[in-house]
């Protein structure tokens, strides 16, 4: 009868080792590669699919929503860099004023990154709140920059409806997009470095309680 508890304990240990997340943050080029691939995929989806789909005059802005989640999760520097590259891609392919989206995306990504860095949000409601206010602020900022650079642009009820409607749609998609982006960026998130510091400080303890958990 004694070997059975030992076998079950060893099975639990093996299962715990299997679900432990690998520590990839020491690979220097991987964070930029992950951000680049994510930006390329999101930019192509926005240009090819979502920019052509309108729902009662409203549009899904996956580019802005992904930018907000990258800034919230990865910090201000990664958010600004991701926004700059994604904005250049959108402006260059769509034929808009080159650098307009990049400027608004850089400011938005950095601001949201600072918010996530200072507050370190834990609640699942935070991505929804960031999706609502961040989308609205990013679209308004882009509109203001376009008004300043293009004198022929005028504020119209249709433009206001697009901003409000896009904000509402992005609010519904904020949590799923946040979870997908976090799963993709998890190996390069700052929590990985905090886990390594905790391991060094508590090296004698079991590492099972120090694993990173997807919030």
UniProtKB/TrEMBL annotation:
Membrane topology: Multi-pass membrane protein
Any one Gene Ontology BP term: regulation of cell shape
Pfam families: MreD
Highest taxon of the lineage: Bacteria
Listed transmembrane segments: 32-50, 62-90, 96-113, 125-145, 157-177
Keywords: Cell membrane, Cell shape, Membrane, Transmembrane, Transmembrane helix
Any single Gene Ontology cellular-component annotation: plasma membrane
Cell compartments where the protein resides: Cell membrane
Similarity annotation: Belongs to the MreD family.
Protein name per UniProt: Uncharacterized protein
Organism the protein comes from: Patulibacter medicamentivorans
């Amino acid at each position: 009868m004694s070997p059975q508890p030992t076998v079950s304990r060893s099975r639990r240990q093996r299962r715990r080792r299997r679900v432990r997340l690998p520590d990839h943050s020491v690979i220097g080029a991987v964070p930029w590669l992950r951000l680049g691939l994510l930006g390329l995929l999101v930019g192509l989806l926005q240009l090819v699919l979502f920019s052509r789909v309108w729902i009662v005059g409203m549009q899904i802005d996956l580019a802005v929503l992904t930018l907000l989640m990258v800034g919230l999760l990865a910090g201000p520097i990664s958010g600004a860099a991701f926004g700059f590259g994604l904005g250049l891609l959108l402006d260059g392919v769509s034929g808009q004023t080159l650098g307009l989206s990049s400027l608004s995306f850089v400011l938005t990504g950095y601001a949201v990154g600072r918010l996530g860095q200072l507050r370190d949000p834990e609640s699942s409601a935070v991505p929804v709140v960031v999706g609502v206010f961040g989308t609205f602020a990013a679209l308004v900022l882009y509109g203001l920059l376009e008004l300043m650079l293009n004198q022929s642009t005028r504020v119209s009820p249709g433009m206001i409806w697009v901003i409000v409607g896009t904000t509402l749609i992005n609010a519904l998609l904020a949590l799923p997009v946040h979870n997908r982006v976090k799963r993709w960026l998890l190996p390069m998130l700052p929590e990985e470095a905090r886990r390594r510091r905790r391991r060094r400080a508590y090296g004698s303890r079991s590492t099972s309680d120090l694993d990173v958990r997807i919030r």
